[in-house]
Amino acid sequence: METTSGASARPLPPAFYTQPTLAVARALLGKTLARRTDAGVAAGVIVEVEAYIAAVDAAAHGYGGPTPRTRSMFGPPGRAYVYRSYGMHFCLNVVTEPEGQAAAVLIRALRPSCGLELMRARRGPAVADRTLCRGPGRLCQALALTLSDDGADLCGPDLWIAETPDEERVGDPPIAASPRIGISKAVDLPWRFYISGSHYVSGRPTT
Fold this sequence. Notes:
Elements: H1 21-28, E1 32-37, E2 40-53, E3 80-85, E4 89-96, E5 103-114, H2 116-123, H3 129-132, H4 136-143, E6 159-162, E7 175-178, E8 192-195
Antiparallel strand pairs: 1-2, 1-6, 2-5, 2-8, 3-4, 4-5, 7-8
Helix pairs in contact: 2-4
């Protein structure tokens, strides 16, 4: 059933994003990501993420130092780092830790909860609910996120993350971990976190 209460909840406080990246990654699971445009509000519950920490992680975009593309990843925390993948898809990351650390959490998948018709208008009318936000590129298309959202304040009026109300949750989410997907460096780090058993998770089958 489509709901709206999670999308209307107060954004998480800025201090949430200053925590260690792996802690933020796990804590984001079960939260609601919401996006407001002139067309309306679309939102979903976060079910899959990946952590990237440039100080120790060769797969992180900021590993070699700041560039115009990665500037937002270096902070401040609580901002969006949006980049284009393979020249086609956009990916949304949540910047974490103190400014200058180049750490972020990639949002990989949502369970849609609000604005499903709006998502279908962007993704295609025949797309199943399960597939609307299943994968980082699909997620950004469904929420109309582009490079213009790079650096956006995640406590702002147009893009935010909030606690999911109890009536929209399914108990405490069982969290599983695995290596990250689609990278060629630091491939063994178990920094992909997801809600085990969720049909909305992308990539490899869940347990």
